[in-house]
Structures are given as structure tokens and as C-alpha cells.
Amino acid sequence: MRVVFPQKHLIEGELPFNLKFKDLDERIDIWMLSTKIAVPEVIFKGEVPLYPFYWDTPEAPEWTPRHELLLGTYSQDGKHGAIHKKWGTQPLNTYIRGHFCLEPHPRAIQEGEHVLVQQYFKSGWWGSGNRITIKEQLQQNKIGFQLLRQLGILKPRVKFHFFDQTKPTQDTFGLKYYLFDGKNLPESYNKHLPNYLREWRYKDFSIHIEDVIEDYVTPNLP
């Protein structure tokens, strides 16, 4: 699959952990990759989507679906939305996104440098909406894994963490910080996901958690 890299001329080094912008000394620690699969209604402000296309505007420009890699640094860009507003050509909710967890971040010092992948299982800010988005997230993952491997981010010895972005961090206190070896993905994560949902999301959906797994997880895994 062809991936467009609009910032390529600005960047030097090697993915995933040794990439820099030519005019900055720090390593790149934010990534986002458009999959052509939308995870709907991820963030709402009241009853209105906070970003129908871009993070903070109601604009909905014409666009042609494509796979696209965007990168940034937390110190310069802050959030994925700022990077997308400057470089992105696809709706924000079609990007699978995350971070390169690099030293001196405490988690990188503790666990080793790794790739963090954000996951969205329920609509709304911190999962406060009513729509279950597991199906779309898993469809996005399926394309995302292929593209991450193609780009050289998903490598056998690179470790990955999957962060549930629709569960407040304070509600997962005590959750083990799982790292998955790139060589075993996506199988190892797909096997882990139902158990994670049973343990940490069993009260969070409008239906019984086993029905969530049966209706939304199992049919959408390879």
C-alpha cells in the first residue's frame, strides 16, 4: 500500500526511535497514520463533534482518501491535532495514532523505549458517549498494523503498548503496563483484548461485556 509522507524532506534518521527533524536536536515522539477507516464520534463537545475534520474547526474540505504518515514532537507541536491541522489531508478520526515513548520519559526508562498506540473503544471524550466503536477500531488496527510494518515501525524486536484512550487513566490505576513484541503482533494483542475488556471495561458499556466481545470483538478479529 502506498503511504504518502509529506514531511519526508524535513526529516532524517530511522524509524521508529531515531528520527529527527533536520532543524531540531530532539527525537520525534508523535506519529499518526491515516488508514481510510474512520472511528466515529470519538470526541464530542456536548452534542456537537469537536472535529468533523480538523481538531478545532467545523471545516470539511474536499479530500481524496489516502494513507498518510504524519510526525511531530510534543515540545513543538503539543498534540496530534496541531500536527494534523498543519499537514493532514484526511479526517482526523481516520488516523491511527500514538507516540514513540523515548527516554528520558519515566515510562521509557522503566520499560525501555517502545511504541504507544492509542485505542478508542467508545464514543465521546474519555468514553462518555453511547456508541461502541470497537468494530471500527479493530478494522483500523488491521490496516494500521500492515502500514506500520511496511514503514519499518512494526519490527520484530520493537515493543508496543496499546493505550485505551477512552478510559480515564485514574480509572485504570493498578493496570499492568503490557508490552507486546512486534514479532507477535497483531495476534498477541488480539488475544489479550477480550481479557482486558472483561477486567477493566465490564461496567462501561450499555450491554453485558460478554455480549460486547461476542458482537464487536470476535467478528472483527482475523
Q: Would you kindly provide a written description of the structure presented here, covering whatever features stand out?
A:
With 222 residues, the chain is of the alpha+beta class. It is 27% helix and 21% strand. The protein has six helices and eleven strands. The protein has a seven-stranded mixed sheet, with helices on both faces. A two-stranded antiparallel sheet has the order 2-3. A two-stranded antiparallel ribbon has the order 5-6. The mean pLDDT is 92.
Strand order, sheet with most strands: 1-7-4-8-9-10-11
**Share of residues in strands:** 15-25%
Structural class by secondary-structure content: alpha+beta
Number of helical segments? 6
pLDDT under 50 segments (min length 5)? none
Write the layout of secondary structure elements.
Blueprint: E1 3-4, E2 11-14, E3 18-21, E4 30-34, E5 44-45, E6 48-49, E7 67-72, H1 74-77, H2 80-87, E8 95-101, H3 106-111, E9 114-119, H4 134-151, E10 159-164, E11 180-181, H5 187-200, H6 209-217
Parallel strand pairs: 1-7, 9-10
Antiparallel strand pairs: 2-3, 4-7, 4-8, 5-6, 8-9, 10-11
Helix pairs in contact: 5-6
Compact description:
Helix content is 27%, strand content 21%. The chain has helices spanning 74-77, 80-87, 106-111, 134-151, 187-200, 209-217, and strands spanning 3-4, 11-14, 18-21, 30-34, 44-45, 48-49, 67-72, 95-101, 114-119, 159-164, 180-181.
